[in-house]
Amino acid sequence: MIEALILIHLWSLVVAASARVSQRDRGKGVGGRFPTPRVWFLLVALSVLPGVLYFMPFGEVLRIPDIEILDFIPTHVSERSAGDPGFFNPVLIYGGVGFLLMIRTLRSWSRLQRLPLVPTTESDVFTTTADVPPLTLSWPRRAVVLPSGFQTGSALVEHERAHLHHHDAELTLALLLLQDLMLHNPGIRYLVEQWRLSIELRADRAATERLTASERKDYAALLLDLQRPRRNGVQTLPCPSAHHGSRHHRALKMRLGRIIGAEPGSGRQGWAALAVTFMGACAVGITASANTGIDKAMEVGPVILEYVRKTPLQMPANCVGLKTDDLKAVERHVTVDGRRIQRYVMKVGVVTLYHDVRTDGSVHNPRIAASSHPCFEAEAEAAVVQWIAESQGAAVKDAAAKLPFVISGATPDELRLQLDALTQ
């Protein structure tokens, strides 16, 4: 999870930087080119695409390290627990901060939804006594809201109706929540701000396309007057600009320049940025999925892998060169047919191998990791592929099994005879 978050944050910075460079104008005029809202919205979506691809189920697997298979059927094997991270889990902290930021945005949206509205002669236009600029309310109260005293037939109403027509308020709320979820990542924030500027440019164009030059200047003067901060600090969705800093002034200069008649120019370079970013996002996301998604460990607790059928290990015909100096017989008491009897067992070899388990429980792809003698390896590989494990809901990759080869007898002398036959 944390890898996906880091990937999204880093990639969003790359997307924002490439978009900023590609949309710069060659000239210094205020009527330069600017991408459409659709381009900026897709750039926001592409900035989180690698994280989405990271979670795509490209053959998701479960990695279980250091498993030792015992001699009993069925065999229960548990994964070593990595320890509980407790309250210092970085993902939980990240999610908690993002949740608080989203709550703040939703409270602002809720205050706007509760504004006292007074209907006018036009069905989609309302007035309010609250100290807010003209704005558009999102669902469920989709309407244009004007402060008391505004003329309902002004160009500013057409501006807000353009927002209403394109569902800009709903999209802005969604993007602000995404921005909160990403903890106001600079890349995401820049792209969202540019999208908000582009929807304002689109609404300005809809409001002024039939105005005379004099009326355009009056509209620009009214717009300039509305840029002052509101006394009650109510956040509008969408607001004319994101911040009252240098970026805000550049955006306002661009809006005013277009309103008074500057030619907007072509926005093709915005689509070029989109195409380049799309290819880059796909490459980064698919690479991340290939490197970490396919082989990444599922974030689960202790896992019990139960084999419901196992072929008993067969001793090889001979193991010439097997070292027997360190082999020791161990006395065990076992119960056979209700009677407790004494047996002597000796572990003469052990093979450690990795194997994979498909989603249906079948074992495949055995790979020898280590063995006490090469004579045991062929039998270990032949035996492990006969095992059947209960389905885990996902493929199990690189399960490490340790297979002991054991001889047994009623007396130590019987063990010695078996050992001599094995080493000849």
Automatic annotation (TrEMBL):
Coiled coil: none
DNA-binding recorded as keyword: no
Pfam families: Peptidase_M56 (PF05569)
Keywords for this protein: Membrane, Transmembrane, Transmembrane helix
Domain (Peptidase M56): residue spans on this chain: 156-241
UniProt-listed InterPro entries: Beta-lactam_resp_regulator, Peptidase_M56
Keyword Membrane: yes
Annotated transmembrane regions: 39-56
Protein name listed in UniProt: BlaR1 peptidase M56
Provenance organism: Eilatimonas milleporae
